[in-house]
Amino acid sequence: MAFALHCDIRIAAEAARFGSVFIKAGFSSMDMGTSYLLPKIVGAGVARELMLTGRIIDADEAYRIKLVHEVVAADELLTAATTMARSIVDNNAYGVWQTKIGLNAALDAPSLRHAKEIENRTQILSGFTNNPAEAAKAHQEKRSPIWDPL
């Protein structure tokens, strides 16, 4: 599960299983940031239950608790992941980069005000690129934008 927690978007095959299982092997469930990320993704109560019991969950439960964003047949996994990746890549690289920076920084923001300051900074920085003007022009001309390189 720890590797999956570090992914921006998680798509699981129907047969996937997830668990914080080191506790079953005589260790703690503290692994690769699980104690930090899992409660932020699924909530503190669910995270505590999974980490304290070492219970393994299936893909459907992982979807229900919001651990994964989508569950697909194993033979559709690569297509689903590629489709998702394409929908991200189609956006401007600078905007995606700034969004990832902002999302990661907001995880540690002590308040909404601090999170908004992070957002304001990323919007201002993005505004210094040609991308907003290109997006407007492309929309007006009914074509896909040609984004600035990163």
From TrEMBL:
InterPro entries: ClpP/crotonase-like_dom_sf (IPR029045), Enoyl-CoA_hydra/iso (IPR001753), Enoyl-CoA_hydra_C (IPR014748). Keywords: Lyase. Its EC number is 4.2.1.17. This is Putative enoyl-CoA hydratase echA12. Belongs to the enoyl-CoA hydratase/isomerase family. One of its GO terms (molecular function) is enoyl-CoA hydratase activity. PANTHER family: ENOYL-COA HYDRATASE (PTHR43802), IP11341P-RELATED (PTHR43802:SF1). It comes from the Bacteria. Gene3D superfamilies: 2-enoyl-CoA Hydratase, Chain A, domain 1, Lyase 2-enoyl-coa Hydratase, Chain A, domain 2.
